[in-house]
User: Fold these one by one.
Assistant:
Number 1:
Amino acid sequence: MENINQLLAVKRQKLEKLKNIGVDPYPTRSARTHKIKVLIDNKDDYISSEEVVTITGRLKAMRRQGKVGFGNIADDSGNMQIFVKKEKVGEENYEVFKLLDLGDFVQIKGVCFVTQRGEFSIRAHVVTVLGKSLLPLPTVKEKIVDGKKQRFDEFTDIELRYRKRYLDLLLNPEVKQTFEIRAQIIKEIRSFLDEKGFMEVETPILQSLYGGANARPFITHHNTLNIDLYLRIALELYHKRLIVGGIERIFEIGKNFRNEGMDRTHNPEFTMLELYQAYADYNDMMNITEDMILHIAKKVFNKDVVIFGDTEISFKKPWKRASMTELIKEESGFNASNFDFEKIKKFCEDNGIEVEKTAGPGKLIEALFEKFVEPKLIQPTFVIDFPKEVSPLAKVKPGHPNLTERFELFINGNEYGNAFTELNDPVDQRERLEAQSKLREMGDTEANVVDEDFLEALEYGMPPTGGLGIGIDRLIMLFTNNTSIKEVILFPQMKPEE
RNA sequence: GGGGGUGUAACUCAGCGGUAGAGUAUCUGCCUUUUAAGCAGAGAGUCGACGGUUCAAAUCCGUCCACCCUCACCA
């Protein structure tokens, strides 16, 4: 505490000194003429023309030596050496330069040149303070060894990185790059869907009933209406209302909130893409999933593969499509396709899978799938034909009363997407939601609730529809080779300090 | 929730029963082409918190807190 007070006091003193010599440490205007990258990309031109340019940025390094000093400033395009000579800027301006600290925002007006050591630099005519910092930035130094950047005293404390993401972005360039890629991926999703005629929509986050997924919600309260409201756990039910309303292709990229455990693939708020297409089914959704992810890979990375850890994931079409019971048979040798509850139950128990009292054969089949199959699905795989029991919003597969036209996309052992041929029969939908409601009464806190308003919408008539949801954060983890969701969310949930 | 790990200066870390350490950053002095600038000097710490053992605790023990890893739970 003493120490930080001391560092802080020094910075405040410098602030006062600047004011005393008539310098505004927080001027209202700046006057940049060039971004740093522009100068670097056209070095030779700026050196030979001796054009007077003005750059701005944060002071990231300082090497003073008496009547001359070197520093580095960075804007969002690059980093450049500055050279300040007392003789050139004059006595008064050199005093200003001497009062600068690492972390301050500065403006340098001058001309480009190359130093004796061969570094492209700007020779200052005028040094201007744009924003004085009052807290010291952690210091990271870099040295180039054999052409490779070696970094010293890196800012690596994971907790600090997440809690003070602004410092993380400032000091760790690869972190900034991750979020640039995130933005590009989302932009490419939008442009892909726009191209295909999907309209972007926004639906309520505050909902008086929640649905569309099996999850526990966050609850909040609206004072004027004096009612409890839920933060949405999925986008699904409102999107279907829009399909009822005659919009044939819609999508939304937005936050969902689930009041559940947190780990390296779960954050309580996370970003979901959902899209719905009238007159389509789950086969169309598989095609669109393949095309969209391949589109991202090509547009953002100019490749049709991605390296995740030691594994090369290929997005080349077609991706494997296999039914859940087929895959279970392949991996465990057990045939569950006849939905024989007693046999399945016994096989589960023999394999150490806990059987909940509300579970029927469908739920057990899903449990077998998770145990035997999921971790083995490394290359993109559409797992199709889920049990009806665990798919209350999906349409039954013709000729297979226990199955639905539903798939989940697995890559690298993780789920990335979920899609169905949507259930548009209002009578069937009511029965399924009521069955969920019974499970709920028996203690399943994640079962769906009956949403009368949604059912009423279905009763007005919904066309045959395909729907798809993709977890955006996980997709970005895949493309940026990150194993923790906290690395792809700017401000991940943390416990408050103290 | 179970198991494992980490927490010491602003940053990165060493110390692991006997006076709290290093590099960077900061401050002072010298330095007109440096680049992890250099040289000389200085200041800077409730050793995560609270208890206990001990003549003596950053160090050993216990409880708690935060974060990380892992298993379980969960999309």
Number 2:
Amino acid sequence: MTTRARGLHTHVLESLGLAITAGAYPPGSVLRTDELAQRFDVSRTVVREVIRVLESMYLVESRRRVGVTVQPAEQWNVYDPQVIRWRLAGADRPRQLRSLTVLRSAVEPVAAGLAALRATPAQCADLTEQALGMVATSRGRRLEAYLVHDVAFHRIVLDASGNEMFARLGDVVAEVLTGRTHHQVMFPDPDPAAVTLHVRVAEAVRARDAAEAERLTREIAVGALQELDVLAP
Amino acid sequence: MTTRARGLHTHVLESLGLAITAGAYPPGSVLRTDELAQRFDVSRTVVREVIRVLESMYLVESRRRVGVTVQPAEQWNVYDPQVIRWRLAGADRPRQLRSLTVLRSAVEPVAAGLAALRATPAQCADLTEQALGMVATSRGRRLEAYLVHDVAFHRIVLDASGNEMFARLGDVVAEVLTGRTHHQVMFPDPDPAAVTLHVRVAEAVRARDAAEAERLTREIAVGALQELDVLAP
DNA sequence: CGTGATTTAAAAGTCATACTTTTGTGGCCT
DNA sequence: AGGCCACAAAAGTATGACTTTTAAATCACG
């Protein structure tokens, strides 16, 4: 299933990106475009375009007379959605989930505070709806349905913050929540305390109580971090 | 000075990226590779490689039989360093500085808290040194020297947090601080209160007092936000 | 012997062209 | 009106020739 029929470029990009982020090539390794073209059985044209993209993600660096050098992980643009996906699909998924969760714990409380100041009535209503949806699906092993509401909830908060940088983290949060549900030993039902907190965040936002919305979201974040420590100590 | 002799690819990428992020092409505009090749007087090969990179930044989308469509700003990967640079160089620099500052205000306090737990002795020493440097240069219109210490200080905190996502924001913070110093109406001397706060953060980190480091950094962040409101209300 | 200039060749960068594939559009038929 | 089909436009891919940069080997000289 690794070979979706989406064009040669996509295929080669996916293969190489996955391999590099998985650490298949130690930093400093040198690739040659000719060799890659041969290996993937595509033209040099395709390889070059792929390399240019990987270069823009700081996964590799291309230099004349030298070749394409794999960069150390500290260089990688870890905010690139593609890179995030590759890393989540690879071996250090746990490490990646952890650092993303820490990022969430920093960003989401502030976003919630801003959302309380700026959310439109429609967004408030949406938020309440999702929170209620979480309540409704929080029992009886309905994790999938719960996840949908959870993701939607956090996305709305980030959007409503009115900050574009926050809003763009919606996908990241979705990945983290999905990963948590699917790939970790998950409790059969979500933590009831967390569910309640979501409802109260929705209320605080509707009440324009920024401080409370921030405080409550920080509690949710602490819970998420603790969960990580419990499940992968 | 817009045409650095760094290769055709770089030149075209820079031109197009800058133009798109500046809003020169309204979202939905369609470009054709042939036309671009002609306009920049380069081969279609070069244009295609550029398009692929812009596509990976979600600035454009390329579809057969249609052409290259400019994406709306909400799609852009605003965490890409290149995109950040382009936007900072363009017309909505103020808006960009604002959203980056909000991001900082969310991330840096948490990073400082983590740094207090994890900073190595060397990092603690470095931090103190930079804080003292800030004190030393905070008077007498030595803004440039002050800036260097300021940037270094925040970089160390982000690095010492031990979170890769935080660490990668070092460049962003550097951009914001530099932009604040160079492109805004700057007070002749930095705010003495801010300088003191930096010193105390360094002390808190050295003392392993995470809560205090976080609290103090939050104060710095509040100051930065207020400064924005004062200078560009 | 070491050191600096010079040559060499390896690899990426660029270009032109020919061909393939996808897909929006317009016309035709019912 | 609705659906089918043929057409053409634009991106995607392949190939081969050529240019430019530059690491490294070679050579000349003190």
